[in-house]
User: Fold these one by one.
Assistant:
Number 1:
Amino acid sequence: MQPKTSLSSDNKSSYIWAIITGLLSSSCCIIQLILNLFSIGCAGFSVLTPYRPFFLSFTAILIIYTITKYGFNSKRTLITLLISILLTASPELVSLHNQGKIISSTNSKQIFVREIETFVVQINGISCEGCANRIKAQIDSKPFVINSKVYFKNQSAIVSVKLGTYKSNDIETWVKMVDFKYGAKVIQQYIETIEEE
Ligand SMILES: *[C@@H]1O[C@H](CO)[C@@H](O)[C@H](O)[C@H]1NC(C)=O
């Protein structure tokens, strides 16, 4: 009998399953974010999205199994739970970031402006939150962009820039530069004046 080795391989396997089911439940959102770092295009993990409820049940089963096996207060259970929840919720977290609801260093740019021009852009072909995130990063990298929000759900973006710096077709071009498969069209455009405090 070798209880130690069998226990440790069992432990590892519960983490591995947490990672696998978590990644699948998230339609590989985290993998897409990593691909973005290396400027690799959208990998089309969105084929997994329709199966999300199915993978979510697997994740739930794994969590229940881990809790019954190791108890609620064990380190094993906590780590498995943490991995599963973070991975599974990653598309929602990325979505909040894409909508500018989680503050990031890129959208805390200090540009002093009194007039902002806002463009509403219809973007066809965004296949997941990870891909939307790549578009947002590209838009935010432009010096006179004040902020941007990219919506995977309705395939659009709202981009605010310093007045007079960019035109509709600049923004359409940036999106195309991320990937030529995207169709980008500015459908609305307006100017706002900000009151000085
Ligand atoms: C997409 O949804 C967001 C928030 O739900 C909204 O503000 C935006 O205007 C929508 N875009 C279009 C093109 O309707």
Number 2:
Amino acid sequence: MKIPQLLLCFLLFICSSNYAIAKKKSHKHHPLLFLPVFKDEITQQYVAQIYQRTPLVPVNLTVDLGGRFLWMDCENDYISSSYKNVPCGSRPCKLSGSQGCYGSSCPVPPRPGCNNYTCSHIPYNPIKRSSTDGELAQDVVALWSITTTTNRNNVSKMILSSTSGVMFNCPGDFLLEKLANGVKGMAGLGIGYTGLPSQLARAFHLPRKFAICLSGNTKSNGVILFGERRSYYASNEVLTSYTPLLKNPVSTAGAYFPGEPSVEYFIGVEKILVNGKIVPIDNKLLAINKTNGVGGTKISTVVPYGTMESSIYKAFKYEFVKAIAKVPIAKPVTPFELCFNLSNSDTLKGLVIPQVSLVLLGEHNNSTTWDLPMNNFMASPTINDSSDLLCLGFLDGGENAETSIVLGGMQIEENLLEFDLVKKRMGFKSVYMSSDLVSCSNKFR
Ligand SMILES: *[C@@H]1O[C@H](CO)[C@@H](O)[C@H](O)[C@H]1NC(C)=O
Ligand SMILES: *[C@@H]1O[C@H](CO)[C@@H](O)[C@H](O)[C@H]1NC(C)=O
Ligand SMILES: *[C@@H]1O[C@H](CO)[C@@H](O)[C@H](O)[C@H]1NC(C)=O
Ligand SMILES: *[C@@H]1O[C@H](CO)[C@@H](O)[C@H](O)[C@H]1NC(C)=O
Ligand SMILES: *[C@@H]1O[C@H](CO)[C@@H](O)[C@H](O)[C@H]1NC(C)=O
Ligand SMILES: *[C@@H]1O[C@H](CO)[C@@H](O)[C@H](O)[C@H]1NC(C)=O
Ligand SMILES: *[C@@H]1O[C@H](CO)[C@@H](O)[C@H](O)[C@H]1NC(C)=O
Ligand SMILES: *[C@@H]1O[C@H](CO)[C@@H](O)[C@H](O)[C@H]1NC(C)=O
């Protein structure tokens, strides 16, 4: 049966009053929400600014791609008429996977962060490596939105609010330790029900999809986009390389409820290539052990440089040094472990950096190759005003590394990564190697 257009609009208005204003303007297009992301110079953390509460205030948050949820300090200066605690036993509490409840220990009057009979969950700061418990709550959140009208070139930008709450967690302010200056919490973009992508998808009626494009430059911003990316991008910027997102049935957070799965983004690395040569690796390390969640490869925004479990790192370093044989090795500069001395101009002339590639699980039981541009694995630290050093931007993750390979900030900067939580896959495209995406920052100015 065909529903008359007018009735459909009416139904939509009722069902989705939470963004009725935007809906009326352009009911053919989902809005695309975006968060500008800055790289903090001192901590190298990626900091996003979100709007929250009633009245709206800007809140800076460190981006944690594999975080369970949004969490922030509610003890200091949290003023909002739309703050609501999530009651124990409620549907959102159950769906959050919480197995905790605060009973009756909150003093009168109740305040954000302490309400009797409230669902509790476990926020984690992976930089401090510390977990605690905190009240689960919800409040209004607003983001910049881009709306393309029927005229493709007419892009309007405005702040769009959810009138339904977006869930977050309220631990004490001690959990902010080690976060960038001015930051009030972390924006968890994890896969699960409480992750920001799923929360925003519900609150703004978006597809459960998001894309990140992080800038390597502390002077210019990158971006996180929520919703259907193609409604904004030109059609020639279609992604063609995809790799499945793999399930890790055991949480990789610092503390978790029994049976809780990991909400981090795991992908399948099958091989590492240096100049096309396979680095010999114990294949067991590349797989996720379903009993204890150990092993595999994940993507993280909370480590500036990628890590490899010790035996993988040694083998990789060996092949890498062999391939770059002519360049003298320099004394390492913290945090790097392998640096090359480029001060000799003869060295520079003949310098060819080896090609590093990751062979990933592809779609349809086929492999796909991610060729890393040099900027995604070679760092040039500037020490004592001289910049004749080049260091490998992968670090030794240790013998007991929980996750065998971690791709960190350096590896994913200036890449467009699209995470599709419905199709359970990640699309990737290097901005360095692409003619149409000039850089993450100038693309989304
Ligand atoms: C929480 O419950 C306790 C015990 O019933 C009560 O003394 C206290 O006043 C309550 N706090 C709030 C904020 O209602
Ligand atoms: C874009 O759309 C807005 C409102 O929808 C209109 O006021 C404006 O003139 C349009 N701009 C162009 C360049 O078409
Ligand atoms: C939040 O981040 C923005 C962008 O980096 C910055 O301009 C602003 O000063 C920050 N606010 C606070 C309170 O740190
Ligand atoms: C996975 O971990 C369990 C528990 O630590 C261990 O007994 C088992 O041998 C591991 N499996 C593999 C394939 O390494
Ligand atoms: C690089 O090599 C030059 C000599 O060729 C030496 O003077 C300089 O100290 C070296 N730099 C480092 C950081 O090892
Ligand atoms: C994928 O390919 C490998 C060998 O290329 C084969 O052994 C395996 O059975 C295939 N898996 C599926 C699901 O088709
Ligand atoms: C598998 O990948 C190869 C090389 O990338 C390609 O030529 C082939 O068509 C792919 N096969 C399928 C079934 O996608
Ligand atoms: C940088 O300069 C300081 C003091 O001048 C010196 O102690 C240090 O060794 C230098 N570092 C390098 C890598 O040359």
Number 3:
Amino acid sequence: MTDLSSPAHAAALDAADPLPTLRSEFLIPRHGDDEQAYFVGNSLGLQPRGARAHVEEVLDKWAMEAVEGHFTGQAQWMPYHELVRDPLARLVGAHPGEVIAMNSLTANLHLMMVSFYRPTRERPAILIEAGSFPSDRYAVASQIAFHGFDPVTDLIEVEPDEPGGLISMATIERAIAEHGPRLALVLWPGVQYRSGQAFDLPAIVRLAHAQGALCGFDLAHGVGNLELQLHDSGVDFAVWCHYKYLNSGPGAVAGCFVHAHHARTDRPRFAGWWGHETSTRFRMGPDFVPTAGAEGWQLSNPPILGLAPLRASLDLFDRVGMPALREKSRRLTGYLEALIRERLADTLDIVTPADPAQRGCQLSLRVIGGRGLRGRAAGRDLFDYLADNGVLGDWREPDVIRISPAPLYNTHADVLRFARAVEAWRDTA
Ligand SMILES: *Cc1c(COP(=O)(O)O)cnc(C)c1O
């Protein structure tokens, strides 16, 4: 039997992996003389080496060409968003006209709800998962209240029915059927941020539409992690950020998808000059005529400095392609899972589903209690121990450590380092 937890085995897995790591394309934070084992790509992805050149290009252009930079030379600012549009569309399985990089995730969620949450007396409700990311909950509750309805009755939260906060498809189906006639919108995550559960997104769209509701996705933890087919799913809209698995830097410009079936919609929207029909935008007329597709939801001219790192990141995704990256992700996370089951079952409970189709790269791990050092809660203690040893995960109160091997830059050796650090902690406790 192979010893899963020997460094030689991990090194052999890395050497034999069909998709060689792109780790050297990233700047890996240091831990003393070593590199960190960085598993927090679900929170802030690492910096691609190519990002700096794209940012400097913008700074140089600004220095040398100033306003002319909009119209001259390489990577002109006026059509700059086109540099990210096609790779972004490939990444999420969309047509180029269905995606736009703009604003931030929560701002885009609000803009999308302005158009796609149109409550009526009969149909005022929004359905989301219980325990959703706070910003999403604040956004939907405030939209409901903004329209004069009451979040207490009209924000429907689907409670988990399985251990660890997982939600079965049967429960989602039942909830959508039960509330169907009152539902204006179903808003669902691609990957639930706390549990790491991934969902059958096309099925959720079908269930929502069958009840006459619209459907939107929050893909903060899905983009760059799952193989998405947004166009084929038929989802009405989706929003995501680019600083997690998309490695585009803190507060990076976010992403937004509007399905082609809404390309020429006369739905209400909050308008700004950058969403105006491109050919006539600079006539500066008084009346808003939206440009077709997702670009028609833009408000302002985009922050070019903010978009620059996204180009470097998308180059890497394009080089590999999501299908191969997802396969590698399954291998890495599968190795993490195997190590935990074999070596750490007395210390860590895996919250995230065991079925690879129901998760992305992240495993959410509940620390089994009673092993705390210095009288502190075990989970927090382990988390701090890992950080002190250069193994970075993240912590979600009250007892969950999230470990997300990012297939672009994490290796089997990183995963083994995590498992060995947990063992060392356990054995000194
Ligand atoms: C990370 C994340 C956010 C963050 O919102 P910002 O507007 O980018 O600050 C929102 N929702 C979910 C589900 C997230 O995972």
